[in-house]
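Dear colleagues,

As part of the handover before I leave the project, I'm documenting each prediction I ran so the next person doesn't have to rerun anything. This entry is a single chain, and its sequence is reproduced below.
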Amino acid sequence: MPTIHPTAIVHRDARLGDDVEVGPYCIVEDDVTIGAGSVLRAHSVVRRHTSLGQRNLVESFAVLGGEPQDLKFDPATVSFLRIGDDNTFREGVTISRATGEGLATTVGSRTFWMTGAHAGHNAVVEDECILVNGAVLAGHTILGRRAILSAHIGVHQYCWIGEGAMGQGNSAVTMHVPPYSLFANVNRVVGLNSVGLRRWPGLAENDRRQVKEAFALTYRRGLPLREALARMDEHADWGVAAHAFREFIHRVVKASHPHDRGLCPLRRRSRVGDD
C-alpha cells in the first residue's frame, strides 16, 4: 500500500503502486499513475495525464506534467507526460506535457535531472541522460541516449542532440549535434566525446575507431556533407555506434521544416592574435 502524508492532496482517481511514498504538501492530480517504489518528496507536484514508472524519485518543488508554455495551447487538450523507471528529478525540475491532442512528452529510464532543469512540451529524453543544474530543452527537442547537458545549456526547439553527446556549460544549440560529440559556445562542435566513448557499455576499440572515421569524414576532410555521407555509406561493415552516427547525419540532411536546422559546424582553433 502507498504511504501518503496527511497534508498531501491526492486525487481519488490517481493510481499509486505498492510502496509509493507521497510526502508532505505534495499534489497528485487526476489521471496520474505512479509506479511501485516511487517517492515524492515534500511540496512536489504531479499534474494530470502524467505517468511515472517504478522507483522514481521526485524532489521538492519539482512539477511534472505541467501545461505547455505555449501560447496557443488549449487547456482542454488531453496530452501526456510519460516517464520510465529509476529516474531522479531534483529540486525545482519542470517537465511539460505535450502540445497536441493525444501526444506525449516522453522521458526514458535511469535519467538524472539536477536542480532547475527543464524539458518543454513534446520533448523526448532517452535513457540514461543527465541534465545538470539549469539545463533546458525547448519543445519538440530530442536528447539521445546517455547524452549530458552541463549547467545552463539551452537547446532550441526542434533540435536533436545525438546519443552520447556532451555539452559545455553555458553553451547554446540552435542546430543538430551528432552522436558522441562535444559541443560548446553557440552552435559549435569541438571534437569527439572520447571519454564517453571509452565508457560506453559494449563498445570495443574497433567501434571507437569507426566512430572517429565517421566524425573525420563529417568534419575534418573538407567534404560537402552529402559527399561525406556517400563515403560513410561505403562502410557496410560498420558496427552499431558508427551506424548510429551515419544515420543521424542522414536524418539531418533529409529533415524538412521545422526540423531543417542543419548540423552544428566544427569550431576551428583560432591563432594567436585572431579576434
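The helical segments are 194-199, 205-219, 225-233, 240-254. The longest strand covers residues 188-192.

All the best with the project,
I.
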